[in-house]
């Protein structure tokens, strides 16, 4: 990041209300791999249709998630998350819309967070819509698969952005159903091929429209669920600023793009932007 880019960024944000949209790139410094970063391997996330329509896919998912969610649960906010929380407390950032399911903004003590794609720590029954914590399900899965988490040989990546892990064999893994109605359990996460709840989308658009600038941090904007907010901001005359390692699908919408680490740029912002609090 050049000094001139940083100065331009500070000039754009000073004294203005800033909404933030974050993606997987902000969490890489917390040990959670990116989906589409320059150094990321190819990934094929499970679709909603695969999960609900194929018990073999579902069994593999739960076996992998039974390992992977623990790594995500242990992850802690990095300098980028903490810097955004400082900017929120200073009155600069009005709120965060995150495409991540890792809860790291919440762990960083943000006050206004919209978890656009849900969170890893909750599970929903597709039958009766009952919610339970991922820890509760972990206990049920451990009872059905004693010792699996301790003895399963892990290969490749330990964890992916959706709390997945790579395990050697999932064919013997036993799934569990909803204790209330016997329905299918699914992480309370929006899968590929599934729509974000309308109310959540409306709240996110309201957050963008209540701000003067949209700061995109760590998102390639490859999927429409994030890109639409950048498009709305640009269409309504708001500045769009993108901080990301690598090109994004929204670069043509941006007033300023910075190809750099989120942690580095956001920390500099938090250190140098004046407070907007009265």
Task: Explain what the structure shows.
- The chain is an alpha/beta fold.
- It has two domains: 1-32 and 77-117 and 196-278, TPP-binding domain (Rossmann fold, 3-Layer(aba) Sandwich); 43-74 and 119-189, SIR2/SIRT2 'Small Domain'.
- It has helices at 3-13, 48-53, 55-74, 79-89, 104-107, 134-144, 148-151, 198-209, 224-235, 262-272, and strands at 18-22, 93-98, 113-115, 118-125, 131-133, 185-189, 213-217, 239-243, 256-258.
- The strands form two sheets. A six-stranded parallel sheet has the order 3-2-1-7-8-9, with helices on both faces.
- Helix 5 (104-107) links the parallel strand 2 and strand 3 (113-115).
- Helix 4 runs parallel beside helix 10.
- The longest helix has 20 residues, at 55-74.
- It starts with a helix and ends in a 6-residue tail after the last helix.
- The mean pLDDT is 90.
Helix and strand layout, with pairings?
Layout: H1 3-13, E1 18-22, H2 48-53, H3 55-74, H4 79-89, E2 93-98, H5 104-107, E3 113-115, E4 118-125, E5 131-133, H6 134-144, H7 148-151, E6 185-189, H8 198-209, E7 213-217, H9 224-235, E8 239-243, E9 256-258, H10 262-272
Parallel strand pairs: 1-2, 1-7, 2-3, 7-8, 8-9
Antiparallel strand pairs: 4-5, 4-6
């Amino acid at each position: 990041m050049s000094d001139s880019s940083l100065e331009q960024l500070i000039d754009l944000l000073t004294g203005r209300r800033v909404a933030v949209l974050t993606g997987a790139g902000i969490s890489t410094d917390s040990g959670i791999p990116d989906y589409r970063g320059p150094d990321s391997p190819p990934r094929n996330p499970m679709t909603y249709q695969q999960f609900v329509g194929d018990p073999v896919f579902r069994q593999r998912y739960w076996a992998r998630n039974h390992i992977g969610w623990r790594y995500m649960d242990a992850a802690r906010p990095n300098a980028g998350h903490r810097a955004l929380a400082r900017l929120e407390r200073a009155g600069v950032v009005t709120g965060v819309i995150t495409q991540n399911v890792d809860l790291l903004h919440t762990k960083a003590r943000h006050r206004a967070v919209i978890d656009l794609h849900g969170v890893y720590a909750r599970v929903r029954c597709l039958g009766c819509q009952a919610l339970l914590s991922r820890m509760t399900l972990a206990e049920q899965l451990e009872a059905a698969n004693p010792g699996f988490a301790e003895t399963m040989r892990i290969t490749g990546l330990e964890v992916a952005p959706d709390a997945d892990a790579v395990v050697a064999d999932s064919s013997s893994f036993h799934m569990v159903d909803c204790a209330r109605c016997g329905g299918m359990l699914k992480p309370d996460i929006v899968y590929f091929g599934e729509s974000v709840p309308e109310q959540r989308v409306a709240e996110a658009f309201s957050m963008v429209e209540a701000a003067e600038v949209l700061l995109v941090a760590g998102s390639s904007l490859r999927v429409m669920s994030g890109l639409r907010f950048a498009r709305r901001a640009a269409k309504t005359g708001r500045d769009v600023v993108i901080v990301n390692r690598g090109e994004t699908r929204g670069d043509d919408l941006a007033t300023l793009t910075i190809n750099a680490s989120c942690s580095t740029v956001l920390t500099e912002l938090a250190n140098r932007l004046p407070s907007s609090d009265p």
